Each structure stands twice: as C-alpha cells, then as structure tokens.
Amino acid sequence: MIVFAASDKGGTGRSVTSANLAYRRALAGDDVCYLDFDFGSPTAAAVFDVPGAVRGVAEGGLHSHLQGRNTEPVRIDVWAETEHEVLRHRPAGAGSLVLLPGDRSGGEFTVGREALRRCVDLFLRLNGEFDVVVVDLSAGRSYAIDLALEATSRPEMRSVPARWLVYHRWTRQHVIAAAGLVFGGRGIVAGGVARGHDEERLRGAIRFVRAAVPDPESPLWSQVPPAQSAWMRKCDQDLEVLAADLDIGYTRLLGSVPLEPVLQWREQLITDEDVLASRIANQETLQALEELAERLTGDEPWGQP
Amino acid sequence: MTDAVFRETAAEHRTQSLPLSHLSLEVGHLYMEDFEAGPERLREHFTLVRPWVDAVRAAAPAGSGKRPRISTCFLVDDYFSRFSTPAELVPMLLAEAERCGLTIDYLARESACAVADGVQLAESVEHRLVESPPPGSDGSRPPVKEIGWLANGERTPGVERLEAMANDLPSWRPPTETAARRHSVFMDVELWDDREQRRTWSCPFLAAVWQLARLGLLRHNGEAVLVPRPAPEGSFPRDWDDLAPLTRLNPAAQPFAAYRTCSVLPSRFLPVEHAVRVILGQVEVDPRALHQVAERSGREGVPVPEAVADRVAHVFYAGG
Amino acid sequence: MRVPGDPAAAVLLCGEIRTCLLQTGRSLPASAARDLLRLRAGERVRVSERPNLHVVSPDLLTGVDCRLPTGTGARIRAVGTVTARAVLTEGRVLQATARFGCPGGGPDTRRPWGSYLVRPGVVEPLGRLPVRAVADGVLADVRRPGELDLGAVAERLLGEVQRHPLLDQRVPFKSRRTRLRWAALRAPDGEGPSLGRFTLAEDGLRTVELRLPEGTDPAACASLCEDLALHDWLLTTLVRLVERSRLGSADGHEAVMALRPAVDHLLHLWMPRARVDTTLAPLWEVLEREPGFTRQWGTLVQRIRDQLALQAIPLLREALTAR
C-alpha cells in the first residue's frame, strides 16, 4: 500500500513520525520504502541518520528522477548505510527499509505530463516490491500533493491501496488548518474530486494524526497545581469539540503521539533501546508509535471489514 | 533455424512480398471541389499534366536497357468531403484523361489511406514513427508522439520543467531544424485531431501513407494491404463506400507498387508534400519489406535510394 | 534472414534487460499476453507455446544522438536507433530489453535521419569507435549525464506494459526487478562464442561480457542474455522468498504459507536454454559449472518440497485417524 504523509503546517513532526512508522513496520516484518517528496526541503535522510544524504543527495534523487534527469533514483538501504548504531543491526525477521531521498537543490516544480507518468510508474514499481510505501509530502498545499492526487486518480493505480495521513499539532490553529487542508475549498478532497477521485472513497482513505499532544493524565503533569490541571483538561476537551465539529474527530483519528523531546529535538527514530536502556524517550511514545504503526496497515481503523 | 525439426509459425516473422513496377506515377490528386467545377476543370488539369507525364516517362530508368514498368494512379478525396457518386464521377474522370491521352491504371480513395478493408493503415504508420532525435537525445526523453504533431527539429521549449526557485529560468528559444544547413526551415506537422471523439487524420499524414503504399512498404501483420481489385462489371457504385479502396481500371496495368514514385501536382500542394517528406523521413517501415524492395531493385540494376523519403519525387506545375 | 541494416558488421553489441514479475494476480494466458504486448498496430506479436509460453512484442525504436558511455571518459558522439522489445515468459515474468549494435566507425557528421532509420538497432559513431572503452562504459554501474541511457529506454517500455489495463496490480508476492547489462565484442577469427564475465553487483545489477563470432545475429545474442537474465531473476527471487519465509527457524506452517507463492508462480519457470540459439547454448554450460545456476535452484526447490512434505505428514495422520 501507499501511505501519503501530509500536514498543513511545518513543525507537526510529519517526517520524523512517518519515518518512525516506516521503521516500526519494517520491524514487524514488512518491506518498507520511504520516499522523500518534500520537494522544498528534503530532510528525511537525517531522521534515518544516513550520512551523505542528510539534506538530500547531490544528484540522482527523486526530484531529478521525476523530471527525467536520472532513470534510477538513488536508493539507500537504511539497515546497511545508517550511522545509527542500533539501526545498523537488522533484527531477524525484519523487512527491508529503503529510503529514496530527494535532491539537495530540489525546489518545487510544476507537474507536467511526463513527471506524472514517471510518478505513476515509480509508485507501481515500488508497490510491486514493498508492502508499505511511505510518501512524505511537503507541508501545506503543494505540487507534491497535486502530483500524489493526480497519480492516484489514474486508472492503472485504482487497485493500489492508498492511505493518507494528515499530521497536525494539538492546538486550535493547527486543528483548523488541518481540517482546511483536507476539506477546504482547495483541499485534498476537493483537489482529488476535481481529478476524478470518488469523494467517499477518498474521504474514507484519510486519517489524522495528532502530534505533540500533551496528555493531561500523564505522570509528566501530575505535579502541576490543580487549577492548571483543570485548565489543561478544559483546553483538551474544547479541542475535541472543535475537532469533532470540523469532522476530524475520533472517527477520523488514527492516533496521537505524545509531546516527546526526542521527536522534537533529536528528530530521529525512537528505538526500543532509547526507551529501555538509555531511557531518553518515554515508554508512552514508543507505545503510541507501535500502535500507530499497527493501525496504519490494519483494516479496522480504516473502516474496512 | 529453418532446418529445425519443430516449428511454430506464430513464433516467426513473416512478410509477404509484392509485385513491383519501376515507377508509380500519380497524375492527379483532386478534391471534391475540383470535380464540382465540372469536366472543364479536369480537362484543364490533364492538359497541364500531360507534358510532365511524358517527361517523367522518358526519364524513368529501367535498367538493362528494357522498357520501364510504369503504373499510373489517381487519388480521389472522399475523406474530407464527399460529392456526387463514383457512378457519375469515375466515367467523367476517365473520359477526360483519355481525351488528353492519359491512361489511369489505378484509382484510390483517400479514405483508404486511413482504413482499408478494415485495416487501420494510418494508425499503423503512426505507430511506426521514430522521431529524428535532436542532438543530446540520450534515450531518457520519451517520444512526444501522443501530441499528434511531428516536427523536423526541436520546438521552442514549453513549461514542462519549470522548477520553482531554480536559477536557470529558461528564456525563449527559437525552434531549430535538426541537421539544418546553418539556418533552420522548421516545420511542425499536425498528424491528426480528435474532435467529438473521432480522430481525423491530416491531409499530409494520409498523403504519407499513400506514398508508402505506392512504394510497396506497407504491411499489416506481415500481409499485403491495399491490394488492387478489378473495376466492377458494369457501372461504378452509387456510394463511395461501395467502391474498392484501390481499383485496377486498366486490366493490362503494371503492378501498382513501385521502387519509386513521382507525383505531378499543382504547386499549391508544395507545403503538403514538404510535410509528407518530413513524415516519411521519420517512419520506420517493415525492415523485411524494405529488404525485399532493395534486393529486387538491386537485382534489376536500378537500386533504390537508401532513405525512403528519397524514393519520392514531385513535379509541381504552375497554377490550379 | 539477413535484412538491410542488419548490424552484422557491428563490432560491438550492447544491451540492458530489466526483469520483473508481471504486476497482476494471475499469470496471463496466451491470448491476453498477445494483447498486452501488441505495442504497435499492424505488427505481429510472436507467440511460442513450446516448451513454455513465450510471447515477444514487436521491436520499438528510439532515436538517439548523444555520447556513448566510455570507461575512459572519451567523448564519442553517436547517432542511430536503439531497439527495444518486451518479452513475457509463462504469462508471469516480464522483461524489457533495449539494445544496439555499433559498427567500427562512421562518417564525421550526422547523416539524414532516413539513413539511420533503415538500420534499426544500429547506433553509428561519428568517427572511429573505441570498442573496449565503450564496452567498459556500457557495463559500468554509473552513467554520466548525457550518455546513452539504455536503462531509460527499457524502463519506459516496462512502465508502459505494467500500466496496461489488463493488469490488476495485485501481485501474489513482493519482488525486486533486476538489471542485466551486456556487451558483446567480436571473438578472434576462427574462435567460437565465449562468456568473459558474469558479475553480480549490488543493487540488482548484473553485467555480462561476451565474445561472439562475426555475423552473430544480434537478436540471438539478445535472446541468450534474456534467458540469462530470466534465470538469474528467478534464482534471486526464490532465494529471497526462502530467506523471508525464515524456513528452518520459523513455525513450519507459517514458512509454508510464505513459500506458497513460489510454488504457485515460480517453480515451473526454470527452463534454461529453452530458446537460445544452438550456437550460443554452450555459453550456458559455463554458468552451470560455475557457479551452478541449476544446482542452486534444484537445492532450493528441494528444500521447499521437503518442507511441504513435512507439513503434510500431520494432515495425513489426521486424515487417516478420522476414517
């Protein structure tokens, strides 16, 4: 299946969380591929700790592939090339984990017929090779989103399962922006329908991921004064009401990721090691990621029997 | 492989060979409005054509001192517009030609260059277009054939690859003819249009198919196409669709297809025939058909030029 | 049959083959395979049903005017056409081949395009051809921008076929495509064909260097390389399926389920030399001795069959006791 990761604004942890999901799926035995479609600023390689591709590769990345400048986009076998000491040891039973980086000097580009054809061919080809293909799209309305919508609207892509993850922070502004990105006048749904997508089917393939969510029940906040605690609960409830009003409430929620310094600051994969041995990451975060990764490929969270 | 015990015919190449004249001479290519203008117009046309036909016949090489085999042909446009019936027009055409001392051996309908006997000739030729690559073509760029145009060089660049924030925003560049002699004569030929879900082939494209048919280079699944049929017993049909795609009017005619072609046309056809040349220069014909023609012409001592477009000649007369 | 433009005079034949699983749930029967590979109106798709189903598309040409890849970095401009075709084996494994032949030299300037078109599959250098350098360039794993890109031609053809509406994109198992590049130089006078090198590089790239007697049909050379590429892909794919099934360590039943697609779709495809020209067949023998393609395949197949048999024993016992 192809998973498109979108967000309306930057700072939602889209790349780092998606990379963690890809990693979790690979640990679970899936063959996983991660595509850096963030044409404005390709940085996914940093999350996987792959040297030489940290701000995209010098040449041969996805941008130049889509523009027909290179036939073989660069592929990085994360297990083999990462400098992350834990990742370097591929656990038995883990699937492949491959990164297709962007070009360092990428930049957005218009979607021509040729770029579209190459994009469809690339998706079909990767779908034949990997169980999960994660496509990290640029923040906001972008050509990358147009390209993804256009490619998936093609008849030859019809039977390739596609799922959309929309990341947003758990704040009033972000909730409104995320709903706008999906349901707004120039949003993903409208853009998809204009390209021939079935509205119900496309809506059914979109789920939201709440990022950097402070959990009022977490032990982290157990020491705060009662007034502050009550206020936090109130804010959280208000946001739930707002989200439900904007149709991005529970039924469209894939999961939440707690506020986590390792995700925020280090912007890297969270390994079991980080939680169990060095204890720099929280158990809750790991659990949330594991759960998300499971729900990502499950059928039930996506309303499928 | 032919000496093998086991053979599968569906797994082999095969290409039917055709009888061939030395020269296919086209004595007219007329539109319905020419017929509409009445027998006088036809008479005027044949009078102007006659001396050129004689000249072409005199100049035709036969090899080994024999008389050249020449067949004449005439193309009627029933594709872009229709007028009257074959029953009325064909006898008039033949009478006027005869009055000027010309024999028309074969009569073809222009629509047969699009579809003949159920075979999509134009489409199969379109699938055989191999565009002349401008310098720098390394195989990574796909052919642009889906757009329905064919050029003799490189077009002004479009916006396909405009990249946001790229520093090298392209400025306008003129089109260029590939392998031009210093200055370009750029030509871009429309091959077809699609309107109301119907594809209409352009006049130059059908004319290119016509030339390939006359050169004996068209095949469908290896079989001959546009095979001439004898003229109907009695009168010609009352509907163009009932007329054979290619009719042999003269039972004693030499073969329709030939090593070379020559067309005698009014000069207003010049741009169309330039376009035909641009198309013929970029068609890859069946290599086995090509081989049959080259081999036999060589054996007769009249070898054909290597490039297909060079086997086609024109005489343009003033007026009309 | 010799046709004009037959690059028999070629001193170098080069090509690239991409091999992959056809992206569809069931293998295609002959009639559907014929429709799939009808890439050109009015031209026959060749279908052979013995000893296995083998369908070959018409040849498609791509015009090129660019530098040839060279091992030395020398800039050699060449003009001509690259021939590409798609081949489908048993309605299941798809290959796209792009190839060209090069004569030893050509005129110093580009000729009219029509002259190149009558020599399909020939790319003619402007000036003299440094044979060794170009062979090295073709086989190299990196390609400099602007140099002839056989891979792009093959890839585009593969994409065109894989996008076909006849295919449902529901593959029975995930697999990776492989690339095989070959360069065939002329064998010394009086010597037969020989296999110089067969290299398995990382990233699914294989390279083959051959020496062929003068006058060898380029299509026969392509068929040989397609056969090598097909069997190399089968072996690579089966090795990977067995590896992923964790045969020997995982629960036996699970491993068998993971190997099921191999049994359904791959095991019957092994048939080396099925369509290799008799004069070139000895080249296969070399690979059978070292590294022993068929030996490795046989061992893998035996492992799978043993596992299936082991799993069948409890079922058999159940069936017997249920009586």
Automatic annotation (TrEMBL), chain A:
> Can you tell which superkingdom this protein's organism belongs to?
Bacteria
Q: Which residues form the CobQ/CobB/MinD/ParA nucleotide binding domain?
A: 4-204
In terms of PANTHER family, this protein maps to: SEPTUM SITE-DETERMINING PROTEIN MIND HOMOLOG, CHLOROPLASTIC, SEPTUM SITE-DETERMINING PROTEIN MIND HOMOLOG, CHLOROPLASTIC-RELATED
Lineage per the UniProt record: Bacteria, Bacillati, Actinomycetota, Actinomycetes, Kitasatosporales
Q: Which species?
A: Streptomyces zingiberis
Protein name stated in the entry = ParA family protein
Family annotation (InterPro entries): CobQ/CobB/MinD/ParA_Nub-bd_dom, P-loop_NTPase, ParA/MinD_ATPase
The alphabetized UniProt keywords are: ATP-binding, Nucleotide-binding
Q: Specify one Pfam family.
A: CbiA
TrEMBL record, chain B:
Enumerate the InterPro entries for this protein. SCO2522-like
Question: What organism is this sequence from?
Answer: Streptomyces zingiberis
The name on file for this protein is Uncharacterized protein
Task: Write down the NCBIfam families for this protein, in alphabetical order.
Answer: SCO2522_fam
From TrEMBL, chain C:
At the top level, the lineage of the source is: Bacteria
Official protein name in the record? Uncharacterized protein
Organism of origin: Streptomyces zingiberis
